[in-house]
Specification:
The chain has about 140 residues and is an alpha+beta fold. The protein has helices at about 20-35, 40-60, 110-115, and strands spanning about 5-15, 65-75, 80-85, 120-125, 130-135. The chain has one domain (about 5-135): Heat Shock Protein 90. The chain has a five-stranded antiparallel sheet with strand order 1-2-3-5-4. The radius of gyration is 15 Å and the shape is globular. About 25% of the residues are buried. The model is unreliable at about 100 (pLDDT under 50).
Length: about 140
């Protein structure tokens, strides 16, 4: 377990290729974070990728050159990720998110993110959507 803080950040275009950059960022960050229970790590990483995928697939805005940032943080107690994107406000209520039925082709991303971490948050700050993910290290 890390005794200090581990931080990594990414500023990227809202395009599918940015998902590869997130995987690379996570790989670097995990090396610095240190020991994390495998299920905690899997759940956190799944949540990060699902939120990133949601931003890439669903965010819309006035600009064709939308961007997002991702900030990863770990200390001895928690793992957290914060996304900020310049898309339009999403029209959803996280309290109503549920897993899609087996015969549906989509609708699992937010439910998987919610299942993977202790807390998922979404708020609007000025002209940015702010997604927060947090989980306790175990």
């Amino acid at each position: 377990m890390t005794e200090s803080e581990a931080r990594r950040s990414l500023d990227a275009a809202v395009v599918p290729a940015s998902l590869d950059a997130i995987f690379d960022l996570l790989a670097e960050w995990w090396e610095e974070v240190g020991e994390v229970a495998p299920m905690t790590r899997f759940g956190f990483e799944t949540a990060v990728i699902e939120i990133a995928g949601n931003i890439v697939e669903h965010s819309r805005g006035e600009s064709d050159e939308r961007r997002f940032t991702l900030d990863l943080f770990a200390d001895a107690q928690t793992l957290s990720a914060t996304f900020r994107d310049d898309g339009d406000p999403p029209l959803l209520d996280l309290a109503t998110v549920h897993m899609a039925d087996a015969d549906e082709e989509s609708g699992r991303g937010l439910a998987l993110a919610n299942a993977g971490v202790d807390d998922v948050g979404l708020r609007r700050e000025g002209d940015r959507n702010v997604w927060t993910l947090e989980t306790r290290r175990e």
